[in-house]
Design brief:
This protein is of the alpha/beta class. It is about 40% helix and about 20% strand. A 7-stranded mixed beta sheet has the order 15-16-17-14-13-18-19, with helices on both faces. Helix 13 links the parallel strand 18 and strand 19. It starts with a strand and ends with a strand.
Length: about 475
């Protein structure tokens, strides 16, 4: 068990208020202690970032690229201990942390090492302009140039702590910004462990600072601080709205990746291959981090002619999944992050029963102790207006809904306040492409849940503001400055 301080200005800072325990969701044992931040300590971190940002922004792109590249190497070199710590504090399965968390974090730093070298000047064609009382006429040249935003506050979610952090910090640093990071309270230890690695990679002191806290106070202090120019947040829509309101009072830039209630839509022409793909995709709600993922297709909308086939396939799929100890390689479904989250998901399941829906599989707490487990659950007989079909649960629960035609499918799919990620399954990809245009969703997968790392990622409606991913992530952490001159 390790006790950490805040990472401020390139060194550990002992917290004034002491520490709080981080609990392993599978064993319910304390695996480490994280520092409890005061507003004064958050302000200290912001001051360090403010002082370091100008110098960092004036380093050459190649220097910034070298630091990010070296960071990717160091994450890979320390993979064994990072995987162990990350698995213990998140409760994610060992195969998930070793294959899709630590390596992906390294990949993101390496991607934005390349991103630091991408052009920041957008040349504009010279334009003939007539003279005016303000200035003489002539051929006027211009360019749009991407500049750093300044100090970025990065507030991350608990489901993928270092992947989410890397997706924010790496493009922010590549563009010449300084960062104050505030990881989720449930599992901040691995994020804290990255501080010394970035110093070892050559990042100047103060360019990245990390503060933590067990409640909302540290994040609130970061959002309110006048020395912060931008807030990048991943988390719930409810918290995102609070952050947006606070940030708006000082016109801070925001990047918000918020909740989702994804729909996997199985069109009536889906053949055996498409149906099989849909069942596998929806099954990922159960098998991928126990449904604790905002892009999960937690609703499956099926043409009535295929509804029973899909429900039968999903029921069988759910029953094959092993729920248990996440360090056992045969385990597919591990625990949820906390007792509070388990209780929240169970309350949604109970609410669905009370509203008249049927639990086709799951719905009861697994006979496993200790640990915060929820069985893979499939809910049928629901209607689109039921709470379980409209709100984000963040757990291993799927709701199956039938539709009769594409217009009805669109109404159901678009009928929530979310619009992050939907999926369309069809034997005709041209038809799926046309159908996707009717979905109010920032991302649409056609016959797959696979992601493309260069696509812009973000949501419509209450699923967020702005886009990250690929070069779009670089754009999000920059301001456009126009330069004009006489030719």
């Amino acid at each position: 068990m390790t006790t950490y301080g805040h990472w401020i200005d390139g060194s550990w800072h002992a917290p004034e208020k002491g520490h709080y325990p981080i609990v392993n969701p599978a064993t319910e044992k304390v695996v480490g202690e994280a520092p409890e931040a005061t507003p004064a300590e958050v302000a200290l971190a912001v001051t360090a970032a403010r002082a370091a940002q100008d110098g960092w922004s004036r380093t050459s792109p190649r220097e910034r690229a070298a630091v990010l590249d070296r960071m990717a190497d160091l994450i890979t070199e320390h993979q064994t201990e990072l995987v162990s710590l990350l698995q213990a504090e998140t409760g994610a399965t060992l195969r998930l942390t070793s294959a899709m968390q630590v390596p992906v974090a390294a990949d993101r730093f390496r991607r934005y090492a390349q991103g630091a070298l991408e052009p920041t000047v957008i040349p504009l064609a010279p334009h003939p302009v007539q003279g005016s009382p303000i200035a003489p006429g002539g051929l006027i040249g211009a360019a749009a140039v991407r500049r750093p935003v300044g100090v970025v506050g990065c507030i991350t979610s608990y489901n993928f702590p270092i992947v989410n952090l890397a997706g924010k910090v790496a493009p922010a640093l590549a563009m010449g910004n300084a960062v104050v990071a505030k990881p989720a309270p449930q599992d901040p230890l691995c994020v804290l462990a990255l501080g010394p690695l970035l110093r070892e990679a050559g990042l100047p002191n103060g360019v990245l600072n990390i503060v933590t806290g067990s409640g909302p106070d540290a994040g609130r202090a970061l959002v309110e601080h006048p020395g912060v120019d931008m807030i990048s947040f991943t988390g719930s829509t409810a918290v995102g709205k609070q952050i947006a309101g606070t940030a708006g009072r000082s016109m801070k830039r925001t990047l918000m990746e918020l909740g989702g209630k994804g729909a996997a839509i199985v069109l009536g022409d889906a053949d055996e291959k498409a149906v099989k793909s849909a069942i596998g995709a929806v099954g990922s709600v159960w098998s991928f981090h126990s449904g604790q993922i905002c892009t999960a297709p937690t609703r499956v909308l099926v043409h009535r002619s295929l509804y029973e086939e899909v429900v039968t396939g999903l029921t069988h799929y759910a029953r094959t999944l092993r729920v248990g100890d996440p360090v056992d390689n045969s385990t597919v479904v591990g625990p949820l992050i906390s007792a509070a989250q388990r209780d929240r998901v169970e309350a949604y399941i109970a609410g669905a029963r009370a509203e008249g829906a049927r639990i086709a599989v799951g719905g009861t707490r697994p006979d496993l102790a200790p640990g915060f487990y929820v069985a893979p659950t499939l809910i049928t007989g629901a209607t689109p207006d039921m709470t379980v079909a409209r709100e984000e649960l963040f757990g291993p629960v799927v709701v199956a809904l039938a539709f009769d035609d594409e217009d009805e499918a669109v109404r159901i799919a678009n009928g929530t306040s979310y619009g992050l990620h939907d999926y369309v399954f069809s034997a005709d990809t041209a038809r799926a492409w046309a159908f996707a245009a009717r979905l109010r969703s920032g991302n649409v997968g056609v016959n797959t849940v696979q992601r493309h790392p260069e696509t812009p990622f973000g949501g419509f409606k209450e699923s967020g503001i702005g886009r990250d991913g690929g070069s779009f992530g670089l754009h999000s952490y920059s301001e456009l400055q126009s330069l004009v001159w006489p030719s």
